[in-house]
Amino acid sequence: MTDLLKKKCTACEVGAPLVSKEDQILLLKDLDGWEIDNLNVTKLVKLFKLSNYQESIRFTNLIAELAELEDHHPKIILKWGQVGIEWWSHKIKGLHMNDFICAAKSDEIYKKI
What we know:
Layout: H1 2-6, H2 21-28, E1 35-37, E2 43-49, H3 53-70, E3 75-79, E4 82-87, H4 97-111
Antiparallel strand pairs: 1-2, 2-4, 3-4
């Protein structure tokens, strides 16, 4: 995961290469608890457990800051004590390296809460 944490997202344009299935499997090993969901569009998904609603909001806001910093924005599902995050690249309708970078950085944010 260390290498992913050092990377910065790049602009993802229509036609940018998708991460291959083989590379997805390798990169997934560097992430903690993330899964690949292939329903409708391939995406990285994870449910983060938090102790209460305020902590869930705080984590959501930190992920929003990451999204703005990286110019890459996830789907965020906020519940009491839980935050679901889904990373995928809308322009290419699948997984780009940016998604793995942001998933790794999401985990780092979570560790600090």
